[in-house]
Design goal:
The protein is of the alpha/beta class. The protein has 2 domains: 76 residues, Urease, subunit C, domain 1 (Roll), CATH 2.30.40; 289 residues, TIM Barrel. Helix content is 27%, strand content 25%. The protein has 9 helices and 22 strands. The strands form 5 sheets. Strands 1, 2, 3, 4, 5, 20, 21 and 22 form an 8-stranded mixed beta sheet that branches. Strands 11-12-13-14-15-16 form a 6-stranded parallel beta sheet. The protein has a 3-stranded parallel beta sheet with strand order 6-9-10. A hairpin with a 2-residue loop joins β17 and β18. It starts with a strand and ends with a strand. The model has no long low-confidence stretch (mean pLDDT 96).
């Protein structure tokens, strides 16, 4: 396949007008065969969502191959070619079942399942958000390793509230085997700083599920900003963070350290109504999902490509930066950048073509138009 005359994204964060070649399922230096005229189109690597719970009526925590398959097909249709869905706070027995289903999943018609984001249960009761308090558990390395075995090694991220008893020891023990993200936490600056010193390298949905940045109490946000080894997730759906906050975050962290995520729940791709998340009832109206009982925001109802559009069209984030944060950075964060996340020669040919309005014109997965 030859994709001709497109504006091709380079991992450095620039677009350049050139041809892109695909041989088999890889990006190549040259090729023959089908030609796509990409004149006037942006040619970008497929996106990676490393934090979402569900879409089109299915949830990763359904714990079935069917659910993962339906989620993966929807995500691929939107230009998200690799997925790392997130679990919720459940019992070890339930998480074991969910992770075993992910291990069993061998789908070939949707986005590729490249990992699991273990968002619960090692979180703070004070900042539980939409997580079920019944199953919150102190950080436990042995429990993680049991679940990782059930998952066949698929767990790429583990979320931990560092102020909870046993958290620092757990971070220190597991950080060589999995990426630790500070999450759902009431930690202050010093505790968060210590967590990063112990090996935590990410912050889950920055600003949400933590104390706000304050000029005398900078908290997790300030500690993350001070540590150049730490990346931060950002939900850019127009609900979770004000446009000015998003712009400020890009100034604080730069586009090398921000990971755009959707944090979508099962209502993504569907109409308003009543849904569930982590066993809790959720009400969806417009672009907002809230816990029916408490009123807390309960994830988003948008996909990652829509987050890119929102960042660019409504928040004045450069397209180059948005693509970098939705394709390059998440792939680097979960250790798959050797195969995915850019259009370098030799990488998997997961490619999306967007028009000037950022609408999807082509999705190419493993070198085939889907």
């Amino acid at each position: 396949m030859i994709i001709k005359n497109g504006l091709v994204f380079h991992e450095s964060g620039k677009f350049e007008k050139r041809d892109l070649y695909v041989e088999g399922d890889k990006i190549a230096r040259t090729a023959q065969g089908e030609t796509i005229d990409a004149t006037g189109l942006y040619v970008i690597p497929g996106l990676t969502d490393l934090h979402f719970h569900g879409c089109v009526g299915y949830d990763f925590c359904d714990g079935t191959v069917e659910a993962i398959n339906n989620m993966a097909e929807y995500e691929l249709s939107q230009g998200i070619t690799t997925i790392c869905p997130a679990s919720m706070t459940f019992s070890e027995e339930r998480l074991n079942k969910i992770f075993a289903a992910a291990k069993e999943y061998k789908g070939e018609t949707g986005a590729e399942l490249v990992g699991i984001n273990m968002e619960g249960p090692f979180i703070s009761m004070e900042k539980k958000g939409a997580q079920n308090p019944e199953f919150i558990h102190k950080p436990d390395a042995d429990m993680f390793y049991r679940l990782q075995e059930a998952a066949g090694g698929l767990v790429k991220l583990v979320d931990i509230a560092p102020e909870v008893d046993g958290a620092m020891e757990c971070i220190e023990e597991i950080n060589k085997d999995v990426r630790v993200s500070v999450a759902h936490t009431a930690a202050d600056y010093d505790v968060a700083k210590k967590a990063f010193e112990k090996g935590a390298r990410q912050v889950t949905h920055l600003y949400n599920g933590m104390n706000p940045f304050h000029h005398r109490e900078p908290g997790v946000v300030g500690a993350a900003c001070d540590n150049e080894n730490v990346m931060v997730e950002l939900i850019v759906d127009g609900i979770h963070s004000h446009p000015a906050t998003v712009r400020t975050t890009f100034k604080m962290f730069g586009d090398d350290r921000i990971i755009l995520i959707s944090d979508s729940m099962m209502a993504c791709g569907l109409e308003d109504g009543q849904y569930t998340l982590g066993g809790l009832d959720v009400t969806v109206r417009g672009n907002k999902a809230t816990l029916t009982k408490e009123g807390n925001i309960a994830g988003s109802v948008t996909n990652l490509m829509n987050c890119v559009r929102c960042a660019v069209k409504k928040m004045d984030i450069p397209l180059e930066s948005a693509i970098k944060c939705a394709a390059v950075n998440p792939a680097k964060a979960i250790g798959i950048y050797d195969r995915f996340g850019s259009l370098d020669t030799g990488k998997r040919a997961n490619i999306v073509l967007l028009d000037k309005d950022l609408e999807v014109k082509y999705v190419i997965k493993d070198g085939k138009i889907v």
